[in-house]
Amino acid sequence: METKRKVLAYITKGEEPNLEMLVFEHKHVPEAGLQVPGGTIEENEMLIDALYREITEETGICREELSLIGKIHKYNYYPKNQNTVYERNFFHLNYVGEQSIWEHDVVSDGKDNGMTFQFRFEPLSALPKLAGAQDDAVDLL
Known about the structure:
mainly beta; Nucleoside Triphosphate Pyrophosphohydrolase; seven-stranded mixed β-sheet; 1 helix; 7 strands; 42% strand
């Protein structure tokens, strides 16, 4: 079974009980579902570098607009009907930027290069279901 290492970013803004989390949808592929920023850790790449690279590629948010709160969870995810296990590393970051709703064209070496993602913040208390069980660690925030 192949193992792929992943980072996922729970980017929040605000204070409890009004905490909001950043989510996105693919503009031209709505069936991909609601997601959080994240992606594959490249060979010989440090976890923290992969986290910030994926966030920047997918959202356009620069590192200076984020405050790392910490790594909150790690587990293996086994998608149905695949011969792959995903090592998922979840991080919590606080967004200190100004944007609340925006679109971003992905620029990367990955399969999402050129895609347009639509971002918004959703109240954590009423967070919709996320695709691919990406919400598995939300309760740890």
